[in-house]
Description:
An eleven-stranded antiparallel sheet has the order 6-5-4-3-2-1-11-10-9-8-7. The model is unreliable at 9-31 (pLDDT under 50). Helix 2 runs antiparallel to helix 4. The two termini are 27 Å apart. It has one domain (2-18, 40-202): outer membrane lipoprotein receptor (LolB), chain A, CATH 2.50.20. 13% of the residues lie in helices and 37% in strands. The radius of gyration is 17 Å and the shape is globular. By secondary structure, it is mainly β.
Amino acid sequence: MTTTRTMLRRPLAGLASLALLAGAPIAATIALPAPAMAATAGTLDDAVAALRGISTMRASFNQTDRNGQSVNGTMTLKRPGKIRFEYAKGVPLLIVSNGKSLTMIDYEVNQVQRWPISNSPLGALLDPNRDVKKYGKLRSTGNPNVLSVEVRDPNKPEFGVITLIFVRDGSAPGGWQLTNWVALDAQNNRTTVRLANHRYGVSVSDSTFTYKDPRRASRRPR
């Protein structure tokens, strides 16, 4: 458990400081669809439309660090600005955003850490119009059905880098499905998060984005 918890704590489990693909071929990260003869390459506007088109989403995720250690869980997203990463049973950590701040709760040591959403490349997921359009740039994939967008704030390198990968999918919002992201934090720790079993438009209560504060005897939801 100590090794797993160390991996997860690296700047908000590699999610708050979400890695640049570091030169790795896209094909090594995801399975690519065959190029369509008349397919048009994706744009930043396509990425923004895909993210903004999600009202709610739930997906399973697999998170892997640069040493190959992995953990699984469920991600729940709701506009505007709410996200929850709930890890599998046995991992006493929770990451949640209420739309204003991103919080990591470690129930094993009763610790709570909080960051403004604006201080995390996860803002690209939570506020795509601001982050993707202002700080994003396309990276060539060699496949018109795969869209790779690197998001970084050049004036704030301490916030890290996130590279979002989309695959063309007519059933997904905006016609592009977010399949994974790779992140590099300021300490060069790389984390890859892969999504699967996407479900859009699911019913999600706002209470999903609250948490029990382990520092309080009452343990009331925040």
